[in-house]
Design goal:
Strand order of the largest sheet: 2-1-3-4-5
Number of strands: 5
Structural class: alpha/beta
Strand content: 5-15%
CATH class of the largest domain: Alpha Beta
CATH superfamily of the largest domain: Response regulator
Distance between the termini: 11 Å
Number of helices: 10
């Protein structure tokens, strides 16, 4: 997991909006509108400035113009994906090519608002993005918490766990590990006890969730 995801793996009661808009008047107007609506706004006139700053807040959504100095909106989106900065993306634009629109959607943009747009359209898109980010962060927290459980296992128990999640039977475990069937059962019992699983199906389900 990347440092950015680790930094963002907690939720606050505040909803954050990263606003990227090179039009000074529009950026100020949108910032005021969003702050009045209760959002914490982080505004930038240049996407390169945003890329160089720490990103350690959540839940959040990016609202970005498509055409900006230094880096287009879709290229910013690509740059964030490359460094694993995962955050819902909303584009606002007065002029965009079909390629830019299609590419932004392929890269996971959740909405594309054509200027001029209404405040209701903007709030609806932002709230959708905030909810998506909450789910994403909760998934990160779940995986981190569940993965930490595996640290309870000894090296040999970890070997048993890795084979159990593939559906190995007791005899297959014994043969693969080169130990007796009785010892195999003891290791399996200890793995299930430490991880608090009641059945092999629970263990397999657990392993699929923390991939």
């Amino acid at each position: 997991m990347s440092p950015d995801l680790n930094q963002r793996s907690s939720l606050s009661d505040l909803n954050h909006v990263v606003l990227l808009e090179d039009d000074d008047f529009l950026r100020v107007d949108l910032t005021s509108l969003l702050e009045l609506a209760g959002y914490v706004v982080h505004s930038y006139s240049n996407p390169l400035d945003f890329l160089s700053t720490p990103f350690n807040f959540a839940p959040a959504v990016i609202v970005s113009d498509m055409r900006m100095p230094g880096l287009s909106g879709v290229n910013l989106q690509s740059a964030l994906l490359e460094i694993n900065r995962i955050i819902p993306f909303i584009f606002i634009s007065g002029e965009s090519t079909d390629y830019q629109i299609i590419q932004s959607m392929k890269q996971g943009a959740i909405d594309f608002l054509i200027k001029p747009f209404s405040s209701e359209e903007l709030f609806k898109a932002i709230n959708k993005g905030i909810e998506l980010d909450k789910v994403f962060i909760q998934e990160i927290l779940f995986k981190k918490n569940q993965a930490s459980i595996l640290k309870k296992l000894s090296p040999r128990e970890t070997q048993v766990y890795e084979l159990l999640k593939k559906g190995y039977s007791n005899s297959e475990l014994a043969q693969t590990l080169g130990i007796s069937l009785e010892t195999t059962k003891q290791y399996k019992q200890e793995v299930m006890r430490k991880l608090e699983f009641k059945s092999l199906s629970e263990l397999i389900r657990f392993s699929s969730l923390i991939k």
